[in-house]
Specification:
With about 270 residues, this protein is of the alpha/beta class. Helix content is about 35%, strand content about 15%. It has one domain: Metal-dependent hydrolases (TIM Barrel). It has a seven-stranded parallel β-sheet with strand order 1-2-3-4-5-6-7, covered by helices on one side. The structure holds zinc ion (2 copies). One zinc ion binds next to loops. The site of one zinc ion has 4 residues, from loops.
Length: about 270
Amino acid sequence: MYNPLIQIELIKENMRIYGDYHTHTKYSDGVTNVIDNLSAAREKGLESIGITDHGYASPSFGGLTREKFIKQKKEIESLRDQFGDLNIYHGIEANITGIEGNIDLREEDFSQLDYIIAGFHAPARPYTLKSFGELYLNSYFSFVIKPSRRVIERNTRAYISMIKKYPIAIIAHINHLTKVDALEIAKCCADYGTMIELNAKHVELSYSVFEKILMTDVKLIANTDGHKKTKIGRFEEIEKYIKGYPEAEAKIINSKPGIIDFRKPK
Ligand SMILES: [Zn+2]
Ligand SMILES: [Zn+2]
């Protein structure tokens, strides 16, 4: 006999993620070729895959150059027919490089991109010496020295300025290294159409903040940040993280099929 309660339970057990919008390749610090990421997406039964290597201020960990990005674009284009079953996106994982919310992209880069992910990365080049002192140093050492409230407020202002200044579609791995007031950022993201990422590699958002974020209008997106084939399309860490929060699934935009309307980098 059909029991609707059992049916709901089954749906909850099997959250499906339809796209992995944050993956790396050899064009930055990943170990895969573009074709490997696309094959992994297909093998995992995904509808969509995003190729999003590290941006232009990260040469120390093999970040993209503008020349490499163009080469990658051509490679992606050459694979579209072979992977006609996938929606393939070409984005970038930009670096927040400054305390004023600067990123390592120029306006003329935007038209090349399907969407922009932005996050803090310790090896990236800071925008100014002031940014090195105020944003970078406290982030590098945040795992040994707990950042003060003043530092967290300053980092939060930097992220909010970035969201207001640039068409960022996704905030990557929030609270990884750079500690911020994630709730304030989520509210700003909701106003500007920017999503907060649940990152399978860096699950560093405390539940007390996550619970408050769930009450805002911000949209969430589940990504693996896969740097190798075996990680692409593997969302188990996120599934584990949200297990006690059935309401989270409705906010995770890629837990539904179809094209995502990303904040456009134009
Ligand atoms: Zn990252
Ligand atoms: Zn990444």
